[in-house]
Design brief:
Elements lengths: L15 E5 L10 E9 L3 E6 L7 E5 L4 E2 L5 H4 L17 H13 L4 E4 L2 E4 L12 H7 L14 H15 L15 H16 L8 H17 E2 L7 E2 L1 E9 L5 E11 L15 H9 L2 H6 L25 H14 L4 H14 L4 E6 L2 E7 L2 H7 L1
Antiparallel strand pairs: 1-2, 1-5, 2-3, 3-4, 6-7, 8-9, 10-11, 12-13
Helix pairs in contact: 4-5, 5-6, 6-7, 6-9, 7-9, 10-11
Length: 378
């Protein structure tokens, strides 16, 4: 994106502009707003009005981005925010970020930039954000209808589904972002929308469509973990295909690529945890099942769950999550008892220790120092 969107005439006194914040403090915004108080065509003096305590700074005009005008008459005294960044009169990195921030402060976490939907994690529930009414609103409008759909993750699914049905060509949806941005939730609601739309809006979804939805708890249990950035971070990447028949109904699904952070199984970074399924297993199984698998409730008794200390798992209900995972595994035909036996074996094998065997004052080999643990894992 260009560093400046100034016209050849430069800036004028009283004009609102943005300048790049040179502070390295991550708590401060990347751009500062201000007003031009003096300009000579080369350098401008800017009176900062946020994070600047009224400070006036001299900045090269080539480093300025013009701000969008605020119209109190149109917005009731509040600064106007556009649903689509492309509708901004002045479009730059600074104005795009500011527009997105304005919407976020009003609990409008989704913003269009052309066909792309940007979302900011609200880190709180927002009433009605993923309701059936929002699904209906995301449906592409007919040519004779006025207005445009509001930006939403459902809008992405709606456009992909519409294009698929009209052209018969495969569609791809890419969900990307930093840890904690909300990728897991976005994927979940995209699937929810596609199942709803394919079921012809409100009719009961087919068994196949419901199976696609039921795969989500399994993926989260076996592929998500708590990190220092996110209590429910996806530690895997996948390419999932949802298949539709000629009538637009879901006929199947498959995963062609699945990349898992397998190293997390044996070693986690300080303050982080292993995959959710292990904690769900210890919390959700009844006492009899745990005893049969040679397990206990205390996760601290298993080496693979304490390699990085006791990572805090805030906001996670392992008992109820285990019930959801168990139910989904049954729906998918995964034979839960066999899977739990394997998981128990992994936990017990992680507690195996070794001791050095010396021969002729030289370290020649090692042997298991607690063979009873191996018996538990068998």
């Amino acid at each position: 994106m260009a560093s400046s969107l100034l016209s050849s005439e430069g800036v004028a006194e009283g004009q609102r502009v943005w300048i790049k914040n040179k502070s390295s403090d991550p708590r401060e915004p990347p751009f500062l707003a201000g007003t031009v108080v003096e300009a000579d065509g080369t350098t401008a003096k800017i009176a900062l009005d946020n994070w600047g305590s009224g400070e006036t700074v001299a900045v090269s005009e080539s480093e300025l981005d013009v701000a969008n005008a605020v119209s109190a008459e149109l917005s009731g005294g509040e600064e106007r925010a556009e649903p689509d960044n492309c509708d901004l009169l002045q479009l730059s990195e600074a104005t795009l970020l500011h527009n997105t921030l304005l919407r976020y402060r009003r609990d409008e976490i989704y913003t269009f930039t052309g066909p792309i939907v940007t979302s900011l994690n609200p880190c709180k529930p927002i009433d009605g954000l993923y309701s059936t009414e929002r699904m209906k609103a995301a449906k592409p409008r007919e040519e004779d209808e006025l207005g445009a759909p509001n930006p939403h993750i459902y809008s992405v699914g709606a456009n992909a589904y519409k294009t698929l049905c009209e052209t018969g060509r495969n569609q791809s949806i890419v969900v990307t972002g930093i840890s904690g941005a909300g990728k897991t939730e976005a994927n979940k609601y995209l699937l929810k929308y596609l199942v709803w739309r394919a079921s012809k809006e409100g009719t009961e979804s087919s068994p196949m469509a419901q199976t696609v939805l039921d795969s989500t708890p399994v993926f989260e249990a076996f592929g998500n973990a708590t990190t220092v950035m996110n209590p429910n971070s996806s530690r895997f990447g996948k390419f999932m295909r949802v298949l539709f028949d000629d009538a637009g109904c879901i006929s199947g699904a498959n995963i062609s690529t699945y990349l898992l952070e397998k190293s997390r199984l044996a070693l986690q970074q300080p303050g982080e945890t292993n995959f959710h399924i292990f904690y769900q297993l210890l919390a959700g199984l009844d006492d009899g099942a745990l005893a049969k698998l040679h397990l206990g409730r205390d996760s601290a008794s298993f080496h693979y769950l304490t390699r990085a200390g006791s990572g805090v798992r805030e906001g996670l209900d392992d008992v109820n999550e285990f019930k959801a995972t168990h139910s989904s595994m049954q729906t998918l035909g995964l034979r839960p008892d066999d899977v739990f036996s394997i998981l128990a074996g992994i936990l017990n094998l992680g507690n195996v220790t070794f001791e050095v065997v010396e021969e002729n004052n030289a370290e020649r080999a090692s042997k298991v120092s607690n063979p009873d643990v191996i018996a538990k894992a068998e």
